[in-house]
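Worked example 4.2. Below are the chains of a multi-component assembly; read each line carefully before continuing.
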Amino acid sequence: MDSRWRQIREKGGSMVLYVERLLSLATLLLISFFVFWGIFTAKRGNVPKIRRIPGLEAITEAIGRATELGKAVHFNPGIGDLTSEVAPQTLAGLDILTYVAQTCANYGAELIVTNRNAVVHPITEEIVRQAYANQGVIDLMKPETVRFLSDEQFAYAASAMGIIQRERVAANIMIGAYYAEALLLAEAAAQVGAIQIGATARMYQLPFFVATCDYTLLGDEMYAGGAAVTGDAVRLGSILGQDYVKIVCIVLGIIGALSATLGSTWLNDLFARFGN
Amino acid sequence: MAAETKGGFVEKLQHVDRRILYLVLAVLVAIPLIWPFTLPLQVSPAVYSLYDHVESLKSGDVVLMSFDYSAGGAPDIHPQVEAIVRHLAKKDGVGLVTVGFFPDGPMFAEKVFWILEEAGKTYGEDFVNLGYRAGGEGAIAMLASDVKAAFQTDFRGNDTSSLPLLQKVKSARDFSLIIEFAGGSPGPPEWIRQVQAVYRVPLAVGISTSMVPANMPFLESGQLISILSGLRGAAEYEVLLGEAGKGSAAMSSQTLGHLVIMVFLIVGNVSYFLTRKNSSRRIS
Amino acid sequence: MRRELPSVVLFVVGLLLILERFLNVGLLAEVGQEIRTWGIIVAAFAVAVASMNLIVVHVRNVRQHKNVVYSLTLLLALVGMAGLGIATGTDSSGYKFWYNSLLSPMSSAMFAMLAFYIASAAYRAFIAKNAEAAVLLISAVLLMLGNVALGEMIHPNYGAVSSWIMNVPNLAGQRGMMIASAIGAVATSLRVLVGIDRTHFGGGE
Amino acid sequence: MSTNVGDWLAALSILALYSFLYKENPVYRFAEHLFVGISAGHAIAMAYGNVRDVAVKPMLDGRWVLAFPCLLGILLFARFSKKNSWLARYPVALITGIGTGMALRGIPSSQILAQLNGIFIPLTNISNIILFFGVIGALVYFLFTKEHKGIVGGFASVGKWIMMVSFGATFGTTVFERLSLFIGTLNTVLGDWLGIIK
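Applying the procedure described above to all four chains together yields the following structure tokens:
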């Protein structure tokens, strides 16, 4: 802190506000402003449009191919639950399941949904039944369309691998929170030559999806995909707000780099002094 | 005809039973453990930085070590703890306080105390194991602001106000160095934003290898003074310490293991593209 | 009322902790300490509840005569280890014996099996079908050569190549992703704080 | 060959779990259930230690207010009853409130500002240029309301290729870590138990 602030401190007038944390507080307020403004305007009607996401479009293509080959589509909303910090990933998986189920009902393709989480299982059953009913093909839905395999991670993976290979599925769609078992599913599907679409925000698993899947949604892209498919105003507004924050960061980055290139470190010092 | 048999061989190559691949990996990784061969090992600047920091500690300094890893991830991280504690054992008058925010943490701290006892150090004066606290990031912030308020009782049931070593320590600011060993969450991000950013104490982390790339930005920005990268980090520290340990012994097995996986990658890709070219030629 | 009051509690707790960081007020620091102490206690109970869930599932298995032997093993192991830890203390040599000779090796084995899954996937599933996968696999191989001493065999200062890849392109991507996901995490936390998102409260009215 | 019971138990339990790699079998399932049970038992023992040291002991010394968080903790068990599972929302509100508050107060300075400060660098050498355009590119890739066309598309693809290198780094380090864990179990089986590792 430069001398002026220190004098105030030493004269006993203790600053109520931590001066060296002003910029961090401003950042938090800025993000809050943009996010809540985005949600507010989206709720009032002008809902933002999400950019093209290749992974999402590939789902339609994959289900189409499965219908041509007369083979099944396997879907799994990840092995996460609905209350821990991976809940948003499971939710995005369930949003996209709505889209997958509707497309399968539309094309008449056979859908198999497997679950590891006992709480998520009945929700997926309801989503698929709703989608088939909307398309008026509720008879297409069989008891084994949505299956709960096991709540133990690797026991789930072992039996899901068995289903993928026995049914020789033509498409394998994995969207949600994934851990080390994702490798087993991806390998089983690769062996039967299925088109694979993967998405997770767990960054330690993402590389293995990129290396095995034909299309991968990277990190937060799955949240945007989930919101785009369901048109959820709150989440779309929040995504718009986050975009504005990223734009501010990009502009600051450019200003900071240009100043540094011209030899001045005013922005570095500002961040270092007030950004604690 | 030749294309057919070549295609046949390549197809057979693709449908090798998974268990054969497992056997090849298991045998090739096990061999160097029985007959190790030593290989040159470059020590990274980050390991030098931590080694120099520990070497510069003076009598009266106290180090905090947090054990935030599970038994499952321990083989990749625990050899680092042994190497650094062996270095601390040589530093007279330097105290060590251990804590854990994973239920397995305190159990692994207890496993290295024999090294300190062998160097004549005693529990209570030279080292203390505070034990485990649930609550992750909140509990870390609690420890950092007031060590003895967060831990009125240590892992062995002693009253912390009666332990001589802990009288020298009130908050995180009183530690000369903090080393966090982590295999997941809470990990470096939580320690940086609740402890390093607030108390400005030198913070190093010893983490599982797969977490290193994602935490490199914290090293480059100076928020961390060092990152020890799994078993290799232990091997490098052992080189500086001049005492071979579990880290160096494993490096030759790691080398063969990596060779196996790289060969599998190459063979897998080559045979995939060969069969795809054959099958596409057959269809067209 | 059943959904509103908990949301108010959540908001007040979160806001107090945020204010504690940015305002230099003694009272706030004391309130923050008290909140965190309560948090440790409730988090400890939460660990017990998660294990209770396991007990409920496997007691039901035993009652319905479904894989009785396995469920009984689990229940006996659970009660035995918890009982021993509570009775003799988790720092007793007896407790350490069972911890070091069963729990520690078995959990390493459970995770070590992943090395095998990666090996078979490397052989069959990691195919450079598109340009992204190709760039990923090539940089992975370049770095793997650097992580073990194979790199040095190819060229004496191969280490400089792999450390440049780690310190420049890798770091750029990680830093960009860190900022983007940090903004996402703040947005998600804000929605939870003000009660827009309530997944953590579970279903039901 | 070791004569210590602990080494025998450790090695045999490891081999029982590895039998899953050959085929799912009863020995594996027995060992797996044993492992899940012991881990849960350990978690309970450590959690009990927390409640004893952080709540019960201080209460006996007069801090009776800590009875309230204990009550909150017990309310968590309401989740198992259909009718009044809403009671469990109060302890969850406390834990989630703490998690949210700690994240919101810490993330801006350490994971946004400090990282942005890292790209206020002179664009005078190739490394700094790659570092700068890589971070900006990754940020542009994660813009979801702007189509990836023109200048935005260009930056987004720079970001994507740079991120592929980062994923390659995570891929390679994960291979290293998994091998370390396997080597750890080999040390137990071949070293401590069979004694063929010097």
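Take a moment to check your reading of the output against the notes. The beta strands of chain B are 62-68, 95-100, 127-132, 177-182, 203-207, 226-229. The two ends of chain B are 18 Å apart (CA to CA).
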